[in-house]
Design brief:
The structure is a single chain. By secondary structure, the protein is an alpha/beta fold. The chain has a single domain, classed as Aldolase class I (TIM Barrel, Alpha-Beta Barrel), CATH 3.20.20. The chain is 36% helix and 16% strand. It has an eight-stranded mixed β-sheet. The protein has a two-stranded antiparallel ribbon with strand order 1-11. It has a two-stranded parallel sheet with strand order 4-5. β9, α9 and β10 form a beta-alpha-beta unit. α5 runs parallel beside α6 and α9 runs parallel beside α10. It is globular, with a radius of gyration of 18 Å. It starts with a strand and ends with a helix. About 2% of the residues have low confidence.
């Protein structure tokens, strides 16, 4: 069957068991991040690919702090009142990109509903700083919904990232449980705005599977994303980061992920990454064709 229900987190299916990678460049990346006082979504969100990415000499930078003003029920990033934005952070991210020699830098952010522009200006400053320090690097940003502000989306786009990503995360029916402070239609509008405002910048979005959605609901989201002009799609298995987060409703079999990939290509997505361990920034350069 496509969805395997009733397996506890302590009894992961065979396709979700793998050793942790901590060889290669792992210690060097950890050391650089510590030296520059930088956060990564790899660490803060407890990404299962952290070891692999650090070991290969890369990381996904988390800007605007490491504390989110929202409390999504799937996310391990801490929620509380955040500190003021650090004006030195964009320059330190740029230095890390240059020192790591990244050809494709991925920058994501916490949601900052406390900031007038949702920290859009901070993200734009990070893009510009990376351009100056590492002009050969492509830059992908994964942004919040900025509370639905078109001006904030425009601020990011004016800095000309190479890929603009905003994740819908799950199907519309589950938003009140999974993302109670977000809105499905608003997320689609963010992607639509980016596509209209900067048609040459590819837009990207992603979903977690295994939260209780049906196959048809996933296909409906995929169709909605295509209607919004979204070109790149990621689908991965939701893994519960702690006992206080939503439990896994189902473990989706690799064959079903492959089936969704075929569905996405038939719908017209130019790139689809669909597998249990896929995350928004995992092998992002390959998905973007770089």
């Amino acid at each position: 069957m496509a969805y395997e229900h009733g397996i506890s987190a302590e009894r992961l299916p065979a396709w979700l068991r793998r050793p942790l990678a901590r060889s290669g460049e792992y210690q060097a990346v950890e050391g650089l991040l510590g030296e520059l006082r930088l956060s990564t979504v790899c660490r803060e969100a407890k990404c299962p690919n952290r070891g692999e990415c650090y070991a290969s000499g890369t990381a996904t930078f988390l800007v605007a702090g490491d504390v989110c003003t929202r409390g999504c029920a799937f996310c391990a990033v801490e929620t509380r009142s955040p500190a003021p934005l650090d004006p030195g952070e964009p320059g330190r991210v740029a230095e890390a990109v240059a020192r790591l020699g990244l050809r494709h830098a991925v920058v994501t952010m916490v949601t900052r509903d406390d900031c007038g522009d949702g920290a859009a200006g901070h993200v734009a400053a990070t893009i510009r700083a990376i351009r100056a320090a590492a002009p050969g690097a492509a830059i992908e940003v994964l942004v919040s919904d900025f509370g639905g502000s078109s001006d904030a989306v425009d601020t990011v786009l004016e800095a000309a990232p190479d890929v603009f990503n905003h994740n819908v995360e799950t199907v519309s029916r589950l938003y009140s449980t999974v993302r109670p402070q977000a809105d499905y239609a608003r997320s689609l509008r963010v992607l639509e705005r980016a596509r209209v405002r900067a048609p040459r910048i590819p837009t990207k979005s992603g979903l977690m599977l295994g939260l209780g959605e049906t196959r048809e609901e996933v296909l409906e989201v995929m169709r909605d994303l295509r209607a919004a002009g979204c070109e790149l799609l990621t689908l991965g298995q939701y893994l519960r980061p702690s006992a206080r987060h939503l439990p896994v409703a189902a473990f989706v079999e690799p064959a079903e992920f492959a089936r969704f990939a075929r569905d996405g290509r038939r719908m017209g997505f130019s790139g689809v990454a669909s597998a249990p361990f896929v995350r928004s920034s995992h092998h992002a350069a390959e998905l973007a064709g770089r």
